[in-house]
Amino acid sequence: MSEMLRIPQLRLPVGHSREELTERVKKLLRCKDSPRITVVRRSIDARKKPALYFNYVLNVEVKDETGVYRRCDKKQVQLWEEKPYRFPVSRGDLRVSSPADYLAEGKTRPVIIGTGPAGLFCGYMLAKAGLCPILLERGNPMENRVSDVETFWEKGNLDPESNVQFGEGGAGTFSDGKLNTLVKDTHGRNREVLSIFVEAGAPPEILYDHKPHIGTDVLRGVVVNLRNAILHMGGEVRFGAKATDFTYEKGHVTGVVINKKEHLPAEYVVLAPGHSARDTFAMLWEKGIRMEAKPFAVGMRVEHPQELINLSQYGKGEVTVLGNAPYKVTARASDQRGVYSFCMCPGGYVVNASSEARHLAVNGMSYSGRSGKNANSAIVVAVTPEDYGSNHPLAGIEFQRRLEKKAFQIAEGRVPVERYGDYRQAVTGMAWQEKGELFIAEEFSPCIKGAWEFAPVHEILPPPLGKAFVEGMERFGGMIRGFNDRNVLVEGIESRTSSPVRILRDDSLQSSLKGLYPCGEGAGYAGGITSAAMDGIRVAEEIAICIAGEDRQQITRSAN
């Protein structure tokens, strides 16, 4: 732990120089020497647009800290003690530190199923501690996966094991690479996740931006660097390795069956399969693993001209320093369902994110520059197990499949697109009544990765959900001018917002099959890249503590 000064609030115009920031800090500290400044948090203040400001939280180091603090206004400057994250186990706590040692000791290595953010970060932390994990990925490595996905978008040839959902990096690889999370973090795992991302090649701004993002192009390289770091530290990553079964004795896992033929012994298995591993969930149910259906959300992607969003958020059509503007909107429909924006992609693309034959799902994606002409976001409606038509734990998956099958059918496998005016009229039965000027030109066209065509998108959602979607869009039109313009593009279906299943785990993070650790978004314990990575670290902590405890007991027995 180290002590320093903190400035909890400092406001400067967007576009200011580093020198202006330094001078403001020196003025607050009432000192002449140039301090060492670390940006802790930076957010945008657009309350007086088009005048835009950055709000900062800063850590500051100076020579005579005690004397400087004594002179400061205590409302503007605070003493701050930095508490860095510490993993509970290091290589020195263990009797083994390489795969060869594990084999010589007759030990099994921790096995991690899935290389999305939960699996990758769990594997990274275990490898760093010297536990030499084996990561299993059903899909392809990044180099091949990108080619598989682009071929699907160009030609429609779906690889069910290597697509937008499956493969190295998980579903988040083909997204905006958003790293903000609402998870309360008292252990420092959030900061640790962002720091590891930066070490792996992400821009340092993610450490302090209020809404950090990487972009799908940069994220791909970061994921490969994380894989290489795991390999360098003694871990192993196997691709085309689908977990198809588990073996167990006396209620404790003893191994993983790969591709229905290879048995890999294991006493510690991390289950981080992602939210689209439907066949894995079915296998777990057949094995008697306790799980339950959980709420999630479904809806549609909507596209607007990015300039329209910039004008609303910044008061200007373009702000070079900030890049294209994001937005966040929430409302409640007349039936009290939540309706809200999800995975908003400034300057992005809507992508065909299907993973099953004759089923279609969409997602949003941005590159790091967020420079596309359109903004897109999912506008989703909350659904609960009561909507699924069954109380079965896997009923949410069948609910998703029904919607995705309909989305595939109405446009014969292409991404279906409909103008919001037509969608609203079909759902409400009311003819469109013009209210003043149109905000979006009739020739406004989509930015979609994959084939698309105009189709009756309004037929996909059940009537109560379609009505809630329209009510949300109308309310959002009162928040962002033109949001509910008749020429807005509506595309669907967005059905993979989060897992519809939760694999139950106890206080030690183990499932009803001991030694099996459900982890991340697919298991029902996260909602996005950062929270999934944080959960991966948390599970790694539990496993490392258990293994270190076993080693200490063995050392004690040997000594006695």
Percent of residues in beta strands: 15-25%
Counting DSSP E segments of at least 2 residues, the number of strands comes to 24
Instruction: Say what oligomer this is.
Output: single chain
Number of continuous helical runs: 13
Distance between the termini: 37 Å
**Low-confidence segments:** 555-560
Shape: flat
Average of the residue pLDDT scores: 94
Kindly report the spatial arrangement of strands forming the biggest sheet. 14-15-18-13-22-19-21
Structural class: alpha/beta
CATH architectural arrangement of the largest domain = 3-Layer(bba) Sandwich
For the sheet with most strands, the description reads: 7 strands, mixed
Q: CATH homologous superfamily of the largest domain, by name?
A: FAD/NAD(P)-binding domain
The fold-level CATH name of the largest domain is: FAD/NAD(P)-binding domain
Under CATH at level 1, the class of the largest domain stands as: Alpha Beta
Whole-number count of domains? 3
**Radius of gyration, Cα only, in angstroms?**
25 Å
- Helical fraction: 25-40%
